[in-house]
Amino acid sequence: MEEQVYHIPALLPQVLEGLDVKTNGVYVDVTLGGGGHSRAIMDRLSTEGHLYSMDQDMDAIERAVSDPRFTVIHGNFKYLKNFMRYYKVDGVDGILADLGVSFHHFDDPERGFSFRWDGRLDMRMNRSAGLDATAVLQSYSESQLADMFYLYGELRNARRIASAIVKQRSVQPIDTVERLREVIAPLINPKQEKKELAQVFQALRIEVNNEIEALKALLSQSLQVLKPGGRLAIITYHSLEDRLVKNFMKTGNLEGKLEKDFYGRVLSPMALVNNKPIVADDDEIERNPRSRSAKLRVATKL
Questions:
Q1: pLDDT tens digits for range 246-259
Q2: Which terminus of the chain has fewer Cβ atoms in its 10 Å neighbourhood, N or C?
C-alpha cells in the first residue's frame, strides 16, 4: 500500500489507543483507503488476530497487501453485517471508520472530487455506480438541488445556487469542474471562495455516494457486529456526520433519544471512551493540513 502517495492516515496513534487493539482480536476497518490505519492495526496483531478491511473503490482494493491475517472486501460499509455473516464472523473486537476522502481522490482530476482541478464531474467512490455528479446536476429538480446544498453543504444561498444551475444547464451541460465553477461564481463570496466551493463540492459528493444513509446503516449495524466490550471508532470531517456519530454513541439510536430507567439513569448500549472528540494537534496539522477538521469519537459496546 503506497500510503505516503495515496493517503496519510489521520489521528493514527489516537485511533490505535481508542480501539485498544488486542493481539488476538478481530477488527474491521470499513474504510481501507491508502491502508495506513489497516497496516498499523495489523502490526499489533499476532497470527491469531485478523483484520477485515473494506472499500468500495477498486483503486484502494488493488493497493492492498497480501497477508494471512488480512481479508480485503470490495464493498460499501452499509453492508457490514452481511459481509461479516458471509465470512462467518460471529463478532468483532473493534470497528474503525475514517470518513474522510483520500488524497488520491482529491488529487486525481479524472475523479472530479476537487474544485482545484478541471475535469469531468464524477465524484463516485464506486466507479461502477450509476449516479455521478454530472447526472445529479443535470437531472435533479431545483428544489432537490436546493435541499442538497442546504442540508449537505450547509450553504445559506442554496436556493440561488440551485436556481442558477437549473437555468444554465439548459444552455450548456454542467459536466465539468470548470463549468460548475463558472455557473456558481457570481454567487460565491470572494472572501470565502475556498470554503464555499468546498461546501458545494461536499454536498455533491455526499449525495452521489449516499454517504449519510450509508453512515446510518453502519452505525445501526455496529451494535449487531461488535462483541460486548468491542469498540467503535469513527473519524468525521463535517458537522453532519459528527452530529450523527455523537448522538448514536451517546444513546444507541440514530435519533439521539435518551432513554432512562425508573431511577432516571440513562439506558444506552454504548459507553463513551472520550466525552469530547479527539482532534489533531498542531504538529499533525502541520504535517497533514487535511487533519485539521478531523474529529475522532470512540465508544464501547456494553
A1: 999 999 999 999 89
A2: C
What are the residue boundaries of the structural domains of the chain, listed by start? Answer: 3-103+211-301, 130-208
With 60 as the cut, is the pLDDT of residue 275 above it? Answer: yes
User: What is the topology classification, in CATH, of domain 130-208?
Assistant: DNA polymerase; domain 1 (1.10.150)
pLDDT surpasses 80 at 194: yes
Q: Which CATH architecture has domain 3-103+211-301?
A: 3-Layer(aba) Sandwich (3.40)
Assessment of whether the complete model's pTM goes beyond 0.85: yes
Give every CB contact of residue 146 below 8 A, 6+ residues apart in sequence: 158, 159, 161, 162, 163
What are the grid coordinates assigned to 159, written together?
436556493
Nearest to 54 by CA among 36, 37, 71: 71
